[in-house]
Amino acid sequence: MKFSRIVAALGAAALIAGVVVGPDEARSEDQFTVGVTVWDVSTTPFAVPLVKGMRDAAEAANVNLIVSDPKWDASVQVENVREFIVQGVDAIAIAPIDIAGVLPAVQEALDAGIPVVGALGEIEGVPYIGVDDIEYGRLSARLMLEALATVEGEKRIVMFRGTAGGSPDRRRMQGMTEVLEASGVEHDWVDVTADWLPDKALTGFQDVLQRFPIEGSVTLVNSMGNCMVPPSLDWAQRLGRTEIMFVAIDLCSAEEQAIGAGKMYGAVYQDPLIMGALVVDSLVAMREAGDYSMLPDFAQVPPIFNCTQANYAECEGRGF
């Protein structure tokens, strides 16, 4: 439960061979059982180390962890929660796909006396374990302004968006907009609906470049997360559009390496291993305190890091 153990997750390997859906081990009668449903643990890069962080923390705390994979299907995630209720788990953590659609199942769990938390996505009426996504957006916008400082005139910013209406995407955009508008920098947003998918981001980026083919007509590309930048960065390099700057939220290995190679300006990021451990450790602490309405102190302000070419030595190897 100690934050030192969460930080120790940084030293763990960032990949697992696969995610087994279901209980890790047969539990003893008094073992704390937590059901977790995570967006998609097979095709979402961020989810792999996130789940590993959860499993490592669960093993250290003798928690029986059940992980379900809805594969980005909101209706399946609702059924995940209902199955956890039937199984009689002690607590449920949801990394939400549809923050509104999951509410009926959340209420069913609460009515059954099972506490629920939102993990890396806020759900109305339950505690949230994760970074402040508005602040995440603010920090990303400040990184963009740093990158754009030498560019004169109006800037065209392409934004690879997550799931429309989802809490992280919406709140991160709120923070970005707040900082950029306050800066007075002339800018034009071009949104690409990517649903957190790198291939979909690339298709949208290719369309943008067809609309704006002249060098300098696209200034910067940013991403809401989940390793959406690398395919588009490679495409821009192939077309000779090296004037386009790239930044990102979150930091996958390909992005970290691109920063080190001088092809990408930088990223603000949360460490998925830390965040996974934080979910489990927070629930353990809440159970011990007998209060599932309040997060423990160590979970109040999860760390957000910064990686640029200037401080690359400090973030090298931190990508998931």
Spatial order of strands in the largest sheet: 1-3-2-4-5-6
Coarse structural class: alpha/beta
Strand percentage: 15-25%
Q: Per the principal axes of the C-alpha atoms, what is the gross shape?
A: elongated
Largest sheet: 6 strands, mixed
Averaged pLDDT, please? Answer: 91
Q: Supply the number of helical segments.
A: 11
The percent range for helix content is 40-55%
Order of helices and strands: HEEHEHEHEEHEHEHEHEHEHEH
The N- to C-terminal Cα distance equals 23 Å
Count of individual beta strands: 12
How would you portray this structure in words?
This protein is α/β, with parallel strands linked by helices and 320 residues long. Helix content is 40%, strand content 17%. It contains eleven helices and twelve strands. The protein has helices at 3-8, 47-60, 74-87, 103-111, 133-148, 167-183, 198-211, 230-238, 253-260, 272-289, 312-315, and strands spanning 22-23, 33-37, 64-68, 91-94, 116-119, 128-129, 155-161, 187-193, 220-223, 245-249, 266-269, 305-308. The strands form two sheets. A six-stranded mixed β-sheet has the order 1-3-2-4-5-6, sandwiched between helices. The model is unreliable at 1-27 (pLDDT under 50).
